[in-house]
Amino acid sequence: MRDGFVKVGAATPGVRVADAAYNRMEMEKIIEEAEKRGVKILVFPELSLTAYTCGDLFGQRLLLDRAKEELKKLASAAAGKDMLIFAGLPWPQDGKLYNVAAAVKGGKVLGLVPKLHLPNYGEFYEARNFEPGWEEVRDVEWEGEKIPMGSRLLFCCRELPELKVAAEICEDLWVACPPSTAHAMAGATVIVNCSASDETTGKSDYRRSLVSGQSARLVCAYVYANAGDGESSQDLVFGGHDLIAENGRILAESPRFRTGLWTADVDVERIDGERRRMSTFRTGDGMNWRKVEFSLNMEETRLERNVDPAPFVPGNPADRERRCEEILSIQAAGLKKRLEHTHCRDAVVGISGGLDSTLALLVTARAFDMLGIPRERIHAVTMPCFGTTDRTYQNACLMTRKLGASLSEVDIREAVTLHFRDIGHDMGVHDVTYENSQARERTQVLMDIANQVNGMVIGTGDMSELALGWATYNGDHMSMYGVNASVPKTLVRHLVRYYADTCGEEELKAVLLDVLDTPVSPELLPPEDGVISQKTEDLVGPYELHDFFLYQILRCGSRPSKIFRLAQLAFEGEYDRDVILKWLKVFYRRFFAQQFKRSCLPDGPKVGSVAVSPRGDLRMPSDGAAAIWLEEVEALS
């Protein structure tokens, strides 16, 4: 459970209708398996001790008494398990019968959650046998003890404060205002559902969307255990469709018509952080909820969840193509609006033959098409200097011509050489002054050309560079509109590739593919034998690592030790722990030290869930101290 990870399980045991002893033994088998797999929260289906399809047999006192006896045996069998278990059974109380989920831990029943909404339509007729439950919690007698019963029960883990569990039963989720909504607002981070939802054509798709949607709306984990094999097939078939979701994402899903246990690791720490981030997620103090405490051992969860090494890039090719089209459209629409507002019909783009300037040029071309402005009014400027290679120069020129933009060349070698003489800089000293002077000269050229044509300088820098501060202040850091400002480097590559694959022009596609194969470089140092000598990732580290760190820090609010743990899983076999730790340290140092550059960024469109704009997502002080983050990173060494 370290780092907020809790392994949860949804189980569908094979049952016999009205045979509580058999059903309990099948449930115990699953409990044994769940223990071996490290499950801490285990959920069984609705009325799992008796089976859901008993019909009027629920009117038989013998069956009701036997269900309670088997619950007692189940609790006893699970006494030594480090696990909170939810099991369904019929519960007679004050002359009425209720459909309840019993929460079991440490050999005891901690509480009973009754079903509030009884379906009595279509194939369902629960009101024939059961009474709707109640919300307010009251104590009921069982085995000489008082146990709480009511919908408003919140099971709270002593050792992990973020772990708060609440329950609802089947139809409760399907109504207009599910109890889980109030549970989440009272603080529940994990909602469990003991369910008996039969199979009809198309119902599984709706069920899946219902569970994932509720977990997204409530910013919670949702564990849905459904009745399956062994239920009466007199009129219905139950498929045992179990689902585990977290904040809109399905983490685990059982195949239908199978029994067994399905598990996933839910991150309650991230859920808690996401709720803090969302000002519209209102939580009360839970005063009307009875809080029942339970204990779990604080051991490290053996993670089985997939940790995506490229969180900004969809893994599914079809999803990735849709995402690329959407992002290009967002970028172009942002630029279109800015051009319209300023009555500007010319744009100036510094084109180097690298990835970022290529993407900026492609976006600008799309924006001009949307406005009906001829592409020749896009002024692509190549500015060769000491580090320019023939490959990037030729690619920049060919790409510009194929896109129909105007191309001009301004060789800045003489201007930069003169500048070095003016400031007394030795041309042989290839330091930061040597590099930044070139970047600032290029920006000056672009700005002045924009003045000449009454145009707008389009920024090329991407979000990954901005996060690391890998931009020359008042150089490539500055523009009049930064179309790539919230696009991470790992996604830039896919956007350019998508354009290449869909442009329909073989020569343009070929040059774009060659740009993709070119090492990322600012080309500010002289080449060696005509080949790029200055490779960005050799200096600041792999962008795939930095984008992973960036996502975990800004989107998830994770601490360094957790990010390091996740990175080792995500990049297993690709980067060893020392390499990951080295670049994590670099990221934190640069991220904090370079905020002053982000504090004065030009405008640019947000395209995803993470951005570094000082006017939007990242209102961070430029002089914030990185000490406590770096201390934790150092402690990992």
Tell me about this structure.
With 637 residues, the protein is of the alpha/beta class. α8 runs parallel beside α9 (390-403). The protein has helices at residues 20-36, 61-77, 171-174, 179-185, 203-217, 268-277, 317-341, 355-371, 390-403, 413-423, 432-453, 463-468, 489-502, 506-517, 536-540, 543-555, 560-570, 577-593, 595-598, 627-635; strands spanning 5-12, 41-43, 84-93, 96-105, 108-114, 138-142, 145-149, 153-157, 164-169, 190-195, 221-226, 243-246, 249-253, 260-267, 290-294, 347-350, 378-382, 406-409, 456-459, 481-482. It has 20 helices and 20 strands. A hairpin with a 2-residue loop joins β4 (96-105) and β5 (108-114). The strands form four sheets. The chain has a seven-stranded mixed sheet with strand order 13-12-11-10-9-8-15. Strands 5-4-3-2-1-14 form a six-stranded mixed sheet. The protein folds into two domains: 2-294, 4-Layer Sandwich (Nitrilase/N-carbamoyl-D-aminoacid amidohydrolase), CATH 3.60.110.10; 317-635, Rossmann fold, CATH 3.40.50.
Key terms for this structure?
2 domains, single chain, 7-stranded mixed sheet, Rossmann fold, elongated, 637 residues, alpha/beta, 6-stranded mixed sheet, Nitrilase/N-carbamoyl-D-aminoacid amidohydrolase, 20 helices
